[in-house]
Structures are given as C-alpha cells and as structure tokens.
Amino acid sequence: MRLLPLLVALVVLSCSPRDHTDDATLSAPQGCATIPQTDCDAAYNQAKKAPSVVTQKQLACAWLGIYLGACHPQPAPVPPSPGVGGSTASGGTTSIGGSSAVQGGASSIGGSSAVTTTTAPEIAFLDCNPASASAGKNPHHLLSGWHRRPDRAKHRRLTVSYSIVAPSSFPKANVAINLDQADLGSCTGNGTAQCLSTWPFTAKLTESNAVAIYSLATKLDSFAGTYPPTDTGSDGASAAKAAKQLGFTSLDFVAVDTVEGAQVALQKSTCIIGTDWTVNDSNPTACGEMKDGSAVQGGHEPQLAFWDAKLKRFGIRNSWLDWGNKRTGTSDTGYAYWSAGTLQKKLNAGAEIDCPVLP
Fold this sequence. Notes:
Blueprint lengths: L3 H11 L2 H11 L9 H12 L4 H19 L115 H9 L11 H14 L15 H10 L7 E4 L2 H7 L5 E8 H4 L13 E5 L2 E6 L4 E5 L17 E5 H9 L3 E5 L3
Antiparallel strand pairs: 1-7, 2-3, 2-4, 2-7, 4-5, 5-6
Helix pairs in contact: 1-4, 2-4, 3-4, 5-6, 5-7, 6-7
C-alpha cells in the first residue's frame, strides 16, 4: 500500500478533464455498490504492476474511481429538511413558556418567537372611529417609560427630507387585542413583546412576558435603578437584548435612524420606536393620525407596526387599551399613525428605532 500516495498524486496532478469524465463513468458502473473488496484489491495490484507511468496513471484513475465509488464506506444519506410545521426556525427555543414552531406547528402562549415561512399577509390599513368615539381617550398612562440612550449616534437632518424607497407593509399581529401596560412604565418591554408577536414571528407573548422583558432591561441599561422595585423606564435596545436573553428570540436588533431605513426594515418585520411623546400622540384624530406640533409629555416606546407608501405614513401599535383604531377588516386594536414628515422630525429630535435582524 506504499504506492497509494503516489497513485493518488498521479490522479490529482495528471488526470485530464477527459480522464475525470471517464473516471466518473468507471466509479459508478452498473451494480457498482456490490463490487466485492477482492475486486478492489485486484484493481489496485494491477495498477502497481503496470509497465509505464502512463498506464499506471490510467489504471490508478480507474482503481481510485472504483475504490471511492464502491469500496470506501459511504456516508449515510441526509434526510430532507422538514417542511412547514417542522422544527423550530429562527427565534430558537426557550424554557420560558415553551417554544413556538414554524407556522403550521404549535405556537405556545409566552413561547419563543420563531419565524413563519408563509408570505406576508394582505395589507389593510385603519378604520376611522365613529364621530361619537374618541380615537385616543388620553388615558394618562405613565409617560416616563422610554429614555434616550446617551451613547446612541443619531442621524439628523436639518430639514424634513426623505425618499420613498419601499412599498407598503403592514404585518399581521398574532394577537387581536393589544397589550396593556396599565400604570407601569414598561413600554419598552411591551413594544418588544408585540414586535415578536407579529408576522413573521409566531409567538403570542403576554403582558407578563412584556414585564419580564422590561424588568431585565432595567438591569441591562445604563440608567439608575431597576424594576422591581423602582419603575425606572428603559430603552429599546436594552429591551431587545433582554428579550434575547430570556429566550423570546434568538435574533439581535439593529438601530435604524432614517425614514428610508424604517421603510426597508418594515418589509421583513415590525420594529420598536422610542420617542418623545406629545399631547397629540396621546390623542390621535378619529382616523388615527398623531399630528405634529404639540407639547412633549414624556418618553414612550410603542411597536412601529406599518408603512403606507401611498399615503406616506408610519403606523404604531400602542400598549394601552381603549386607545387608537382597529385594522380594517379585523378585530386588531391599538393602532395610530404619524405622517412620514412627523416621523422624520421625531428622528431629528432623537427618536430611536430598533428592528430585528432577519435574513
């Protein structure tokens, strides 16, 4: 067997493309898989005794083809990948509330947020509320739940200027009724939980999950105090890290600081946005617009839920009950929107958008 390295080298260095084509034929003849080991040994011995290097090369190609094709142990076949309803996709599994499989399988309340393989749902925007009903009942929730990160680099423009770079996108929520943070400043956890409970994710995170995200975020952020006992508020990037550490997702979130970047990001999933929150934000119009130009009440972080390219507006899903508008044709609640110009102004003022990193 001392000539084996030489024969292999001759095959690698000397076999022409035509030789390789012939070898492929020799390596898989009819019934090749049943060639006995003695035939392999005989072919090898014949190659050793050949009178010339050329003949040895030709026989070595033939022998190596037979050896690799029939005599060498073959790897076990790889089973096909599971289809829809198979193993857990991006988002991973978690011990907190169970795991959420790819759409078609089981989706556990409070489970990790896997990614569905189905296409984006049909877009439908917002219903206007009846004239007798207020879009926003101004519930005066605590508005100190979001804090601007001092280390966050901002992309600011001197004027409101943006381009339309992506089509409309309004991913479908997995839960019809939006979460309710009540009087706790957990908006960063609520926004993150609702993001991970919307297409393409499959989980249905609960208010207790949102509070768990918020609580850990207060330990990860740079602000004084933690919850419990102190309701300190937090920031979106810390809430995203907390959701990953708790097993609700395996994905990182990335900062998005432009209107154009938000349009592109919303093609793949929803996001979260921390911003100065104004009186008009608390009180949308009957058709859901949160208009620019009113006093700041505090800081708040809802889910950034849709982009309407035709009407140039960005929608949010809030974490307050009895607030906002329904998605047209559904029972999904808690929506309102800013014009793209208003969102641009919020970004100029330091608003922070964070979005899941998806392929």
